[in-house]
Amino acid sequence: MLPSSTSTSTSTSTSTSTSTSSSISTRIPAPTPVPGLRALVSRASLVLWDFDGPVCGLFAGLRAPAIAAELRALAALKLPHWSEPDEPHDPLAVLRRAHDAFPGDPDGLVSVLRKRLEELETEAAATAEPTPGAFDLMERLLAVGKQLVIATNNSEAAARAYLELHGIEQYFGAVVGRHDDPRLMKPHPYCLERLLAETGTAAADGLMIGDSPADALAAASTGVPFVGYGPGSAKLLRLGDAGAEYFVADLAAMTEAVGE
Q1: CA distance 78 to 112
Q2: Between these two residues, 86 and 39, which has the higher pLDDT value?
Q3: What is the pLDDT of residues 85-135, one digit of tens each?
Q4: H-helix segments, the chain
Q5: Where are the domains of the chain?
Q6: Which homologous superfamily is 32-57+129-258 in?
């Protein structure tokens, strides 16, 4: 009897595991076919790029957790028992949490954290790896008359340092980086709204390429069409959960969609 019971239990467990795996896999969005991407690109006159992800891998490897740990340590010096963010390994989440914990920044802590993060981001820009296919896509978009801008939660200094290092600063008409007030970081639409205003572009004539739920939500709140860049099923799943409708697993598909 025991072998039979064990077999039944194992079968049930396997069935449950298979069902769960199947449920998760069906939620992962499939990359959008090129014709669907082509329709989006053809309508856009302005392409808004997120920086860390679509343009380059700013915090490659273990760099982001190490930077977040340094910022948390600085914050703890001022308030040893402060409540850490839900994402303690994300430097931007640490900055947001510090702003919430120290309203008005009475001791200048948030300013210290912001300055240190900008320094570390700019250092990281010197060794950041270009995202595969990014340069080709930029050049193809420019060749067909699209205007390019950057909307990032990273510092403007870090983004410009990377662009200058790779000789592509002239590709982008404007760069809007992290506001001094962390509450205005994406998913707040501030940076997108500012770029639309500066370029005189209607939201419907824009197209954003981003790799995070914050990007998707910021685009949705401004009415800017959005393509989620997800080089991996986990990113695609998060983008889909944030409401994104169009996806690419690599930038080569976007380049193909631009055409000649």
Answers
A1: 11
A2: 39
A3: 778 889 999 999 888 887 888 778 889 999 999 999 999 999 999 999 999
A4: 2-27, 34-43, 63-78, 91-101, 109-125, 134-143, 156-165, 190-199, 213-222, 233-241, 251-258
A5: 32-57+129-258, 63-125
A6: HAD superfamily/HAD-like (3.40.50.1000)
